[in-house]
Amino acid sequence: MRLALVGFGVVGRSFAKLLQLKAGELASKSGLMPKVVCVIDNHSYSQDSNGLDLGKVLSKKNRSGSVGLPKKGLSSSEIISNTEADVLIETTQTNFKTGEPGFSHIKAAFQSKMSVVTANKGPLAVAFQSLTELARHNNVYFKFSGAVGGGTPILDFGRSCSKGDTIVRISGILNSTSNFILTHMERDALDFKSALLYAQREGYAEADPSLDVDGFDSAVKLVIMVNYLTPNKVAMRDVDISGIRGISLKDVERARKTGKAVRLVASADSKLKVSPELLDMTDPLCVSGAYNAVKFGCEFSGDKVIVGKGAGGMETASSILRDLIDIRGMLAARGSTSC
Length: 339
Ligand code: HSE
Prior knowledge:
alpha/beta, Rossmann fold, Dihydrodipicolinate Reductase, domain 2, 7-stranded mixed β-sheet, 6-stranded mixed β-sheet, 12 helices, globular, binds L-homoserine
């Protein structure tokens, strides 16, 4: 299976490393023999229809900050359109307002009959329906399990919950950075700023961490879940958002004394909301550190909870690989010979 990678930051590079580590196992367990034919980052790109040496691309990136040739006025979308690949792996920086540049990359791939796997939340938040329709129209696959929950298959679990039942309520901890900050304020008495720096050093925060701490990242993930898992169609403007910037060490300490913890909770029932709440320490949603937890309330089968680490390069890369294995299975089922 020929892959093109656009975006070579923490997640893109982790995915390249994971491919190297798992090559043998992927072939024997899933019949997947990926060959990366194109890598594109902000200013450079590298192409080889016989397959790039990922070790070399990774060390070039580490050494010089580039992956190959300068783009010289070519846009990433043009490079994608001129690449012969089966699947585009899209991991560029998230833009919650325009969805760009991810939106254009995904569109270019679909129009060139490539399937797409993305962990980029921006295009899903602003154009979920049009992208899923475009994928269908071009008879290709569109997978994005890494966009919510990092390596934890929250969207897949939600899909399973909604088979034969209806999800009527969603609530959860969707932002690892905020949860990590609140946990370390609680445990180590770190102030907000130091805890945020710690989360950034661990690689959990967005390039602009205000997206994490002001609640937008949780809101985007909530919008993606509602659009993907329920018949409702919602947008960011429908979510009432407040973040954790105003939470002090005193608030956290006061909560702890009463057996509670402050957590940034996202919820969707009759209204969509992201706000700090006091959770009982025994509440299954009251997870620690970079963990996420989501409770799906179903009409007939009741509540179900999924918990797991919600951010991190290798974790998110493993979701991308999971999506790729699924695409390989679907292609094989419809008789495509691509492996
Ligand atoms: N910044 C995000 C978070 C990364 O902290 O949850 C994963 O989407």
